[in-house]
Amino acid sequence: MSFIDELNRAHREVVNGERKTVALRRHYDAGVEDVWEACTDPERLSRWFLPVTGNFRVGGTYQLKGNAGGEILRCEPPRLLKVTWLFGPNPGFSEVEVRLSAEDGGTLFELEHIAEMPAEMWSQYGPGATGVGWDLSLLGLGLHLSGGVQVDEETFHLTADGRSFITTSSQAWGEAFKAAGAPADQAAAAVAATAAFYAPEEESPA
């Protein structure tokens, strides 16, 4: 499986309003029930995403290890999941919605993340700040559904494949940023900052 081919399967969209929206849409060659289970079963989720704990019902809460947590707002198996997506000590509004539908013998996966982002963060990184992370997650889901070997999230950015994936993902979000109205120079600066954040250059030994 080519990581870049996996990346190119996704369509990206940005809404640059008062609340920022990053959206991804892609096809998986797996049935809706299988994709739903991969996204909601705690044991399977830990294999391609992160360990999760919580009270898994509408109105209940969840917590991803070392990452976001929040409330389960809607859960309509096997089609729709909506949660608040809160991270850090003073999170603002942030919600993630995942929608699944049958398509061409497989599943159309749609993810939308709407959030209030600090102006300085959006100005520096643009949509890639969250978009690259979601691209990495969708790669993990694709590998899981196909039975492929999972990447090591802690070291993937140090590999040639990982750096290429992150750079290409950052560029893709830069294009989506421009399509949403961002000036070309702002989008280019955001691409460079995002790639450097997710895949920093290794320091040469002194």
Automatic annotation (TrEMBL):
InterPro entries recorded for this chain?
ASHA1/2-like_C (IPR013538), START-like_dom_sf (IPR023393)
The residues that cross the membrane are none
Where's the Activator of Hsp90 ATPase homologue 1/2-like C-terminal domain?
A: 30-138
Q: Which domain of life is it from?
A: Bacteria
**Which protein family is named in the record?**
Belongs to the AHA1 family.
What name does the UniProt record give this protein? SRPBCC family protein
The species is: Nonomuraea diastatica
